[in-house]
Design brief:
There is one protein chain. By secondary structure, this protein is α+β, with helices and mostly antiparallel strands. It folds into 3 domains: about 1-100, no CATH class; about 105-190 and about 240-260; about 200-235, no CATH class. The protein has 4 helices and 7 strands, in the order βββββββαααα. It has a 3-stranded antiparallel beta sheet, with no helix packed on it. It has a two-stranded antiparallel ribbon with strand order 2-5. A two-stranded antiparallel sheet has the order 3-4. A hairpin with a 7-residue loop joins β6 (about 80) and β7 (about 90). The chain is elongated, with a radius of gyration of 33 Å.
């Protein structure tokens, strides 16, 4: 990740212009090494640079946070990075720092984005295996979309060269592995819903209560029959309890997350 730079107090910005010497011409100075020696080209020509200064008659717009759009006014703190091929990126201090996919188009960054989106999707509630399967299908679709990009890039490369290349073979291999990963995600082994806990909690399924009419729970019990369940030993539940469903969700969520995390690339 590019280094994150923190600025305590933003300053007003102005256009940079060449510094002029007494003769009215731009001031040009040699570029030097750390030891003070002048840098030169391979042919021995001295490398120079033109000095620049702020032109306070030409103010520039204030920076804006690339995440929330907040204007970075003079005096406000902010942070910035400058990744290769992307230029300066600025954010206010209230916004989180950059994720890899926000400044890089690399395969690893794209995979990290898919996995992050998947974790967010899996964090929500779902009430049945079908609900979870729908979430997994959406995740798999995002993976396959990335695989299609790799396949298209490989095809364009092969078309341009008129034959396959090492790079196109690598792209096709990446696409194949991504599609395999999508299949694994889509076919995650989801545990079955739990059976309702139908045991009477008062008599623990025995159907009887030794306490009789003096039962402290207030049920009309006899030594032969539990007053809570009428002697059946059953609670009459037709659906799993909230605790059972929460336990099932956690197990199913973990199974799905393990598959999402198991990217072959």
């Amino acid at each position: 990740m590019p280094r994150v730079n923190y600025v305590k107090h933003a300053r007003a910005r102005f256009q940079m212009v060449p510094k002029l010497g007494d003769d009215g011409q731009p001031v040009v100075v040699p570029v030097t090494r750390k030891n003070g020696d002048a840098k030169t080209t391979k042919r021995g020509k001295e490398i120079t640079r033109t000095l620049t200064v702020q032109d306070r008659t030409k103010p520039l717009p204030n920076y804006k946070c690339g995440k929330c759009g907040t204007e970075i006014l003079p005096g406000m703190p902010y942070k910035w990075i400058e990744p290769k091929m992307r230029g300066l990126m600025v954010r206010c201090m209230d916004c989180p720092t950059w994720q890899p996919w926000e400044y890089s188009y690399s395969l690893s960054a794209r995979i990290a984005e898919i996995q992050s989106n998947a974790t967010d999707a899996l964090a929500g509630d779902f009430d049945s295996p079908d609900d979870l399967k729908s979430i997994l299908e959406e995740i798999a679709g995002e993976i396959r979309s990335l695989a299609e990009e790799k396949e298209e890039a490989a095809s364009n490369m092969e078309e341009g060269f008129g034959h396959s290349t090492y790079q196109s073979d690598e792209l096709n291999d990446q696409a194949e592995q991504l599609n395999g990963w999508a299949d694994d995600v889509e076919n995650t082994d989801i545990p079955d819903l739990p059976e309702p806990d139908n045991q009477c909690m008062h008599c623990e399924g025995t159907g009887t209560c030794d306490a009789g009419e003096e039962c402290a729970e207030g049920h009309e019990c006899t030594e032969e029959q539990c007053g809570n369940c009428g002697g059946t030993g059953e609670a009459g539940e037709e659906e799993p309890t909230d605790d059972q469903m929460n336990e099932w969700r956690e197990e199913a969520r973990q199974a799905a997350q393990d598959t999402v995390d198991n990217c072959p690339l």
